Amino acid sequence: MDFPEIDAGVVDDQDDDEAGTPEEEPLALPSDFTSVEREELGLSALAVFEHRICMGHAHDLLSAIKLSLNHQGAFLADKKKHARGQKDNTRAQTQVRVAAARTRMLAEVFNYNRDRLLILSGSMTIDGLPAIDMEKDLKSRNWQKPREQGDSRHEPSWIWTVTPPWSSAGDTAAWQSEGELDRVQWFRARAEVARINEEVNKLHAEFKRTHQGFKSMASAWEALLTCTDLSDGARAYACKKVAMYNTLGEK
After folding, report:
1. How far apart are CA 31 and CA 119, in angstroms?
2. Are 161 and 174 contacting, i.e. CB atoms less than 8 angstroms apart?
C-alpha cells in the first residue's frame, strides 16, 4: 500500500493546539450522569464509591466549617479585647473578614458536595445533612463566655450536633442531645469560677499574712521599749515604728 509522502519539514500543530493538554481534559464522574445513563454505561459500582467519598467529604467539610467558625469568633473576641486605634482595628477586622470569607467558601463547597450526593442517591433530601443556610447556620458560639439569661432560647445550628453515620451509638446519642453543648459550656463556666475562687483565696491569704506581718513588726518594736538603756531618741524612733506598723495593720 502506497502512502502519500509528507514533507518532513512541515509540521502541522493546529490539531494539537485545539485539543489542549491531557491535564486540562475534563474527566466525568458518575454524578455527572443521570441514573439511567449510569446504568447504560455500567457506572453503578463507581457511583457507590463516589457516594461514599462524597459522604466522608461532607463530614470533613462540616468539621472544617466548625473550626473556621471558632477561629472567626476568636478573632472577633481578640479584636474587642486588644484592638486599640485605627491601625489595630483595621488589622483585626481583616482577620475577621478573611475568616468569615473562608467559612462561607467552605459552606458553598459543602452545598455543592451535597448536591452531588443528591444526584447519586436519586432523592431530594439527605437524612442529617440539610443544605447550609448562609444567614442562619454560620453563627458561632462563644464557649468561653458564661451562660446568660435568655441563652436557652437560642438554639444552636444543626452543624454543631450532626455526627457521621459511622460514629458509635453512644457518641451519636451524646452529641445529638440538646443539652450536651450546654453541659460543655456549663463545665467550662464552672472551671472558670473555680479558678476565680482560687485567685480570691490566694489574695485573701496574702492580705492575712501581710496583716500578721505588720502586727509582728509592731510587737517587735514594742518589745524594744522595755529596754531600760534606750536613749530618748531611740525610744521616740521605736514609738514611731510601733505606731506606723499598727496603722498599716489596721488598713
Report:
1. 6
2. no
The sign of the torsion formed by the CA atoms of 118, 121, 123, 128 equals negative
Cα angle 81, 86, 87 (rounded to 5 degrees) comes to 90
For 86-104, b/e burial (b = at least 16 CB within 10 A) is eeeeeebeebbeebbebbe
Nine cell digits for residue 186: 456549663
**Is 229 among the domain residues?**
yes
Give 186-236 pLDDT, tens digit per residue.
666 777 788 888 999 999 899 889 888 888 888 888 888 888 787 888 888
Q: How many residues does the chain have?
A: 251
Task: Count how many domains the chain has.
Answer: 2
Contact 159, 62 (CB under 8 A): yes
Q: Is 19 exposed, middle or buried (0-12, 13-18, 19+ CB in 10 A)?
A: exposed
| Long-range CB contact pairs, 215-224, < 8 A, 24+ | 215/245, 215/246, 215/249, 217/241, 217/245, 218/242, 218/245, 218/246, 218/249, 221/245
Instruction: Determine the structural domain holding residue 103 and report its residue range.
Output: 28-142
| pLDDT digit string, tens, across residues 139-156 | 766 555 555 655 555 666
Per-residue pLDDT reduced to its tens digit, 32-62: 888 888 888 888 888 889 888 988 899 899 9
Cα–chain center distance at 8: 65
For the entire predicted model, the pTM comes to 0.57
Is pLDDT of 178 > 50?
no
State yes or no: pLDDT of 134 exceeds 80: yes
Q: Can you tell me which residue has the cell 536613749? A: 231
Residues 127 and 204 both lie in one domain: no
